[in-house]
Every structure is written in structure tokens, then in C-alpha cells.
Amino acid sequence: MCTMRTVALCVLVCTLAVACAASESTSPELLYTVSGCAEEYDTSRAAAADEIEIMVRGDAIHMGHRLSYVCCAELLLRVEQEGNTIRVVEQNVGEMCRCLCDYDVEADITELSSGVYQVQVWGVEYEDVHTPELLGQASVEL
Question: What is the pLDDT of residues 99-109, one digit of tens each?
């Protein structure tokens, strides 16, 4: 025999379970590589530096960035999502120095549902010295 209190408790538990399942959203996953610093800065590549390529590869958004930056950097990337805007932020967690070199940054963003996304690349953030600036962006459809 079910009492009114038991029925109310069952309804509450079911409502919370449905609300939790509806609010679950997957966060984008970022898989990336950053090449080691070239031993010498190639001035012939200076014009090609900071080229950014954003495209869809399979079920992932792919980003490639040829970056000229300080040679003592340790570069990390993070991904942020707000609605259909995806931000890839490049961050230097290493040092600052006067030498320059080239890095090749490659990243894949996965775990996104189908749709149109505005992908932005921001960089290079360094402590409170360099705030990230928008380096490039593109609209892509998964």
C-alpha cells in the first residue's frame, strides 16, 4: 500500500533524475600537440607565421597554427565553450626570453554534437603580462 508521502517522494526522485539527465551536457575534449622549438628562427617563415587553419576532420574540429613565439616557452592549450562558440586558448606556462622560434600547434576538438560552431583561437596568454588576443576564427559545421 502506497501512502501519499511515498508517492510524492517517488515523483520527486523521478523529476530530479530527469532534470539531471537533461542538464548533462558533454564538454568538448581537446587533444593537441605542440612541436618543439626550432633551433633557429627561420626568418623566411616569418610571413607564414601565425597562420591558422580551422576545418572539420571526421567528427572533430581540427585547428593548426604555425606560431612564432619565444623559444623558452612551454605552451599549453585549453578549450572553452559558450553556446556554439568554441575558444581555443594558447597559454605559455614557461618563461619569457628574447629569442624567437617556430612552433607547430595541432589540435582536435571532439565530443561535440552536430551543429554550426564559431571557432576562435586566442593566444598567447602569459601570467598577467600578456592577455590573450583573438588570432583567428572560422565558422564550421559538424
Answer: 988 999 999 99
